[in-house]
C-alpha cells in the first residue's frame, strides 16, 4: 500500500496556492507555502493620495465556484458579495456605447437576448467545467463537454463563433473585446471566451470590503488550519522532493505543488523555457488614481483598441499599439486605469508619452476632460509582473493552442511523481472562478490517490 502523504510544500502564495493549502490542511496534512514576496500574488493593496486600492482581480464573477470552495472547507461566506452596478460595464465600441448585460430598454436588447439564448444551454454546466477534472471517465465532465460542444459547434476561436452568429455590429464588437479575457485577440482566443458575457454578465460582484477581502479570508482560513505561510522566502531550485531556498536552506516534502508560472517552474527544475515571445499573453500597466472628487463614471468602462488587427500585430511584434484595450474601474474618488501592453519586461509610468496618449483617450472617450489632471497616482508596470515570475510580465503566461484551451486546460495537473501544479498557468484568463476551480480540481485529484 502506498504510504500516505503527510507534508506538502506549495510554491507560490497567490490565491490558487493559498486556496489549495487550505483544502489540503483541512484534510490533516502539514502544509507550507513558500512565497518570495507577499502572499496574494497579483491581489494586494497599493496606496495613492492617502487612498488604498486593491490590485489584481477587479471583478468577482460566478460565485458558485467560491461557494463550492467554502462548502468543501466547511466555512460560511465572509465576503458580503454585492452586485456591481452595470455588470461587465459599458463597452465603448465604434458603433456606440453598449452596456453588458444589455438592459431591456436598449435598442439592442433583442440581439442580447438572442445571444444569451445561444449560450444558455451551457449555463447549468459551467460549474462542472470549472471544478471537475477533465477526465473521460467523469460523467459530469462528459455531460459538460457535450453541452459545450453543442454550443460551440465547429468553432475553435472566439472570432469564428462570433462571426458565424451575425450579431449587430455593436454587440459583435463588444463580444470581441470581451474575448480578450485571457490576453489574446479574438482570433487567438478560445471560442469559450465569446460565451462568457452571456454566462456571467448578470453575476458580477465585489466584496463589501473590497477585493482584498478575498485574500484576507484565505489567509484566515489558512491560519486556522495550521498552514505555514513563509513570505519573503524564494525557492531557487527544485530537485525531486527537495527545495533549495535563497539562503541555502534545504526543505523536503512528501508532495510538492507549484502555483508558479510554468516557465518559472521549468527554470527551477533546470529545464529551459521554450515558450517563444509570440506565444506569450499580454502584460499590463495598472494606474491607480486618487481623484480630488468623485468621478461620476460608471463602475466599469471598457475601451477597445481602435483596430483589432493592428492591436494583434503590435502585441505579437512586442511594440506598443497606437491605442490599446483599456479597462477603467471607478469607485468614489478611486479610479483604476488598466492598460494592455506587450509582455516585454518594460518599465512604463504615467509620464511616458504613450501612456499620456492613452490617458487622454480615456478622458476623451468618457467625456471627462481634465479628470486625471493633478491626481496622485501609483503604477504597477510590466516589470512588476515580471518580478512575480511571469515571462516578460505576461499576466497569463504562455498562450496555449486553441485545441488545448478553455476547459480542456493547457497544462497537465501532474507533472511528475510527487509534483503537481495549480493556478493561472493551468487556467489562464478565467479570473477567480478558474483559480478556485483549479484548486478544487487538484484537491479532488489528490484525494483520489490517497493524499
Structural write-up:
The chain is of the alpha+beta class. Helices cover 33% and strands 21% of the residues. It contains 14 helices and 21 strands. It has helices spanning 15-26, 64-73, 109-119, 126-131, 139-152, 158-165, 169-178, 192-200, 212-224, 262-268, 308-317, 353-365, 382-387, 431-448, and strands spanning 7-11, 30-35, 45-48, 51-54, 60-61, 81-83, 89-93, 96-100, 204-207, 228-231, 235-239, 242-245, 250-252, 255-258, 283-290, 300-303, 326-331, 334-341, 376-380, 414-416, 419-421. The strands form 5 sheets. The protein has a 7-stranded mixed beta sheet with strand order 8-7-16-17-18-15-19, sandwiched between helices. A 6-stranded mixed beta sheet has the order 10-2-1-14-21-20, with helices on one face. Strands 5-9-6 form a 3-stranded antiparallel beta sheet. The radius of gyration is 21 Å and the shape is globular. The relative contact order is 0.18.
Shape: globular
Strand content: 15-25%
Q: How do the strands of the widest beta sheet line up side by side?
A: 8-7-16-17-18-15-19
Largest sheet entry = 7 strands, mixed
- SS elements, strand count: 21
Based on secondary structure, the structural category is alpha+beta
- What ranges have pLDDT less than 50 throughout 5 or more consecutive residues? none
* Rounded mean pLDDT score: 90
Q: Radius of gyration, rounded?
A: 21 Å
Separation, N- and C-terminal Cα atoms:
12 Å
Percent of residues in helices: 25-40%
Total DSSP helices:
14
Amino acid at each position: 500500500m502506498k504510504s500516505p502523504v503527510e507534508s506538502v510544500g506549495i510554491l507560490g502564495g497567490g490565491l490558487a496556492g493559498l486556496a489549495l493549502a487550505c483544502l489540503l490542511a483541512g484534510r490533516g496534512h502539514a502544509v507550507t507555502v513558500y512565497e518570495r514576496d507577499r502572499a496574494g500574488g497579483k491581489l494586494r493593496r497599493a496606496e495613492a493620495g492617502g487612498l488604498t486600492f486593491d490590485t489584481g482581480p477587479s471583478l468577482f464573477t460566478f460565485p458558485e465556484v467560491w461557494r463550492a470552495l467554502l462548502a468543501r472547507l466547511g466555512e460560511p461566506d465572509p465576503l458580503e458579495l454585492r452586485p456591481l452596478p452595470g455588470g461587465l460595464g459599458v463597452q465603448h465600441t465604434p458603433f456606440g456605447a453598449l452596456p453588458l448585460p444589455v438592459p431591456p430598454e436598449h435598442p439592442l436588447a433583442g440581439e442580447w437576448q438572442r445571444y444569451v439564448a445561444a449560450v444558455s444551454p451551457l449555463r447549468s454546466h459551467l460549474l462542472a467545467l470549472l471544478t471537475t477534472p477533465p477526465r473521460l471517465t467523469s460523467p459530469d465532465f462528459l455531460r459538460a463537454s457535450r453541452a459545450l460542444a453543442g454550443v460551440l459547434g465547429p468553432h475553435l476561436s472566439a472570432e469564428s463563433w462570433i462571426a458565424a452568429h451575425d450579431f449587430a455590429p455593436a454587440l459583435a464588437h463588444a463580444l470581441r473585446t470581451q474575448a480578450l479575457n485571457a490576453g489574446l485577440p479574438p482570433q487567438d482566443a478560445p471560442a469559450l471566451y465569446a460565451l462568457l458575457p452571456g454566462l456571467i454578465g448578470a453575476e458580477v460582484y465585489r466584496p463589501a470590503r473590497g477585493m482584498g477581502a478575498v485574500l484576507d479570508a484565505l489567509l484566515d482560513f489558512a491560519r486556522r488550519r495550521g498552514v505555514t505561510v513563509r513570505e519573503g522566502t524564494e525557492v531557487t531550485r527544485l530537485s525531486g522532493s527537495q527545495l533549495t531556498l535563497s539562503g541555502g536552506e534545504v526543505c523536503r516534502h512528501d508532495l510538492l505543488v507549484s502555483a508558479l508560472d510554468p516557465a518559472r517552474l521549468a527554470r527551477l527544475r533546470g529545464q529551459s523555457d521554450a515558450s517563444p515571445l509570440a506565444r506569450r499573453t499580454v502584460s499590463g500597466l495598472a494606474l491607480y488614481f486618487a481623484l480630488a472628487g468623485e468621478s461620476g463614471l460608471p463602475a466599469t468602462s471598457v475601451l477597445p483598441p481602435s483596430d483589432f488587427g493592428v492591436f494583434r500585430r503590435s502585441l505579437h511584434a512586442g511594440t506598443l499599439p497606437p491605442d490599446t484595450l483599456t479597462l477603467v474601474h471607478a469607485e468614489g474618488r478611486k479610479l483604476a486605469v488598466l492598460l494592455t501592453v506587450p509582455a516585454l519586461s518594460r518599465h512604463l509610468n504615467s509620464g511616458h508619452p504613450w501612456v499620456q496618449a492613452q490617458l487622454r483617450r480615456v478622458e476623451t472617450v468618457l467625456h471627462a476632460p481634465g479628470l486625471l489632471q493633478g491626481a496622485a497616482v501609483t503604477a504597477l508596470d510590466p516589470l512588476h509582473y515580471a518580478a512575480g515570475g511571469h515571462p516578460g510580465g505576461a499576466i497569463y503566461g504562455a498562450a496555449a493552442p486553441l485545441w488545448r484551451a478553455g476547459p480542456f486546460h493547457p497544462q497537465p495537473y501532474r507533472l511528475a511523481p510527487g509534483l503537481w501544479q495549480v493556478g493561472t498557468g493551468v487556467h489562464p484568463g478565467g479570473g477567480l472562478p478558474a483559480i478556485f476551480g483549479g484548486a478544487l480540481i487538484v484537491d479532488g485529484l489528490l484525494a483520489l490517490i490517497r493524499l
